Amino acid sequence: MYGNDFGAPEEASGGGLLGEVEAAEAALREAAARQRRGAPASDDDLAGFFAEVVEADQKIEPRDWMPEAYRKTLIRQIAQHAHSEIIGMQPEGNWISRAPSLKRKAILLAKVQDEAGHGLYLYAAAETLGISRDELVDLLLNGRQKYSSIFNYPTLTWADVGAIGWLVDGAAIVNQVPLCRCSYGPYARAMIRICKEESFHQRQGYEILHTLSHGTPEQKAMAQDALDRWWYPSLAMFGPPDGESTHSTQSMAWKIKRFSNDELRQRFVDMCVQQAEILGLTIPDPDLRWNDERQAYDFTQPDYDELMRVISGDGPCNRQRMAHRRQAHADGAWVREAATAYAAKRAAENKEKVAA
Ligand code: FAQ
């Protein structure tokens, strides 16, 4: 079950969204191999060159000229994405020591470590735009940059770990597969690897819920309760509805975003319905039904006022998540100091060697 595939956990296939990631990877290689116009003819031609590269589905690279607003949009989005991966370690990290078996602990530990890795790829991609990781971390800690709303909800039971994998990683993949074709090369390349790993994450969550929903009545009830609590916050991850999305039009013109928030939300709902059926769980939406005309499911929208409240810092766990991150950052100060001192020592030694 990868992305929009569905079936029992043992019926994994490499198609669906993972197939799209592979196609995006091949397209990246082809774009790199294709001849593009050598270089801008003059400084007056920089904007024309940028537009031509984007139009031709080539990649903008760090060395290339880019409009300042494009750079700022990318820094905002990539940083928000990186912060989400790092803050997103907390809700599941909370369950590592309580996972029900050694195997479950090992799998969850690996998954949470992967999220840290995703944060690092993304901070590295943002750094190519001329901002340092220290600056980005400061912007998160002083509240000037955001992270995804979804990580401000609590993980009350073990089934929540399953729901995060299935729904949160599932929504993340639906949102991120198109980002593999983003016009900015370093972001697109980071997304390829991240999406492949997210497929595993989604699958492990689905497998947890499949086990619970085919277990005792209490386990099935726990799985249903997790779906009931995570469904609407997961739909809200895709952002405000198109009419209220401030950045979508420009980001789509620059080919940073390839689909609108509502298009991706719809795709996610359509993907989940059959997966929920296989699980034997009920999506908590009485108005969910197939619309033959649209060839898509009609569904109830999430509460966007709640989304705005959570984004602005007033969700169930915002304060706890930020306090934990600030504490972890303070606790890590000695590691950063030691690493800086060691790097300075090595640099001095190298200088001496060169001079000798
Ligand atoms: N949460 O104009 P738009 C993951 C803000 S990774 C918080 O539509 P845009 C993996 C938005 O920033 C999850 N803020 O914005 C994982 C803007 O505010 P600003 C993260 C939100 O950028 C799994 C304002 O609202 N994924 O889950 C949210 O065009 C499990 C107006 O919105 C990414 O970051 C929200 N949900 O579209 C890890 C993917 N929605 O900056 C651990 C990359 C909107 O003007 C465990 N990002 N806002 O003050 C994107 O694709 C886009 O940034 C969107 C928003 C689609 C999130």
Automatic annotation (TrEMBL):
Gene3D superfamilies: 1.20.1260.10
GO cellular component: cytosol
Designated name of the protein: Ring-1,2-phenylacetyl-CoA epoxidase subunit PaaA
Source superkingdom: Bacteria
MF annotations from Gene Ontology: phenylacetyl-CoA 1,2-epoxidase activity
Pfam families for the chain: PaaA_PaaC
Gene Ontology biological-process annotations: phenylacetate catabolic process
